[in-house]
Amino acid sequence: MNLDHLKNEAQNTSCIDWAERQGWAITKRGNDRFGPCPLCGGTDRFAINISKNVWLCRQCDVGGDVIKLVQHMEGLDYKSALERITGRKAAEPIDPAREAELKAQAEQDRLARERVANRYRQDQIRSARRIMNLARLPKPGGPVEAYLRKRGLDKLADTIAQGRFKILLREIERFERKIPVKNGGKVEWITIDECPVMVGEIIKPNDDLDAVHMTFLDPTTPKGKREKADPNTGNPLPSKIMKGSKKSGAIRLYTPSAPTRLVVGEGIETTLTALQEAYQPNTAYWCGADLGNMAGAAGEDENGKRCNHLPDLNDDEAFVPPAWCKELVLLRDGDSDSKKTDNQLQRCGRRAMALRPGLVAKIANAADGKDFNDMLVEGAE
User: Fold this and answer.
1) DSSP label at 139?
2) Is the pTM of the predicted complex or chain greater than 0.85?
3) Which fold has domain 247-381?
4) Is the pLDDT of residue 44 over 70?
């Protein structure tokens, strides 16, 4: 049975429209909307990209269009998912004029989503650049140096303080954080925090600064990061956030003059641990911001089946090492889901080898249940 007419009609429904119809808890603003996965839970592991009209669950490691969304969430086959979305049986004919109308409406909706997403993206980029304008090089004895020492990075902190080594991190000595709080029928913005912040510049391949990574600091907590609750919900506020457009970018913590090797970790602390404990000449040490950014979209095998360990080489927003990189070393934390992490790092490495002929990609593993910085701190205790 030819299902093309039903497929075209189903794709007239966007992923976000479907999610909202089901009453799923999804953030209301931005190009990337987040919330708990309807199947596996969590808080923000489920995401919908508005402009591309695709979704992804980081835990399930599954994503795609609205049809795959309904298939995955409701356990339906392809035909049943089409019928579920459209509310029509596959055997029912559709008027050609109606089909053309739906196609035109879908294109209008797509363009509208792209306009909204682009406005939000530009707002976020401007916000990121404003934050960088506030940030300064870390001062000796300042909050970033104190944080590095808290994380067992004393040798690195010493060389930075003495001016013998430079990494691309910045600090804001006091950053005011505000959130909206409902007060009767009004919304008031209240200050919930005034704390120092470590700032990492997320640089795109064209050297544009389009995003920042912020770590909110508090030297009195066990790991040196701010711990505070949202006064609206009582839930913990994130100690780290990113603002801007991070896709394909990286925090270029340290890059020597003529590098040939690149070490990439998911987190700043993991990457700095490798820099301190396993420094090698001609090697750059970059932070990939998060595994999703490093991995990019999953591809398909020769039979058209999605394979989470294979990269989608048409994903032009995934991280790709620069042309000078001949060896890529990916740092694998041992405190996250093993299969998912393996798939994501394999995608990153395979994409790099496919798009940079001659490059060799390797994975360095931390101990089970720990990341590299955990190992450093516990080894020093």
Assistant:
1) P
2) no
3) Dna Topoisomerase Vi A Subunit; Chain: A, domain 2 (3.40.1360)
4) yes
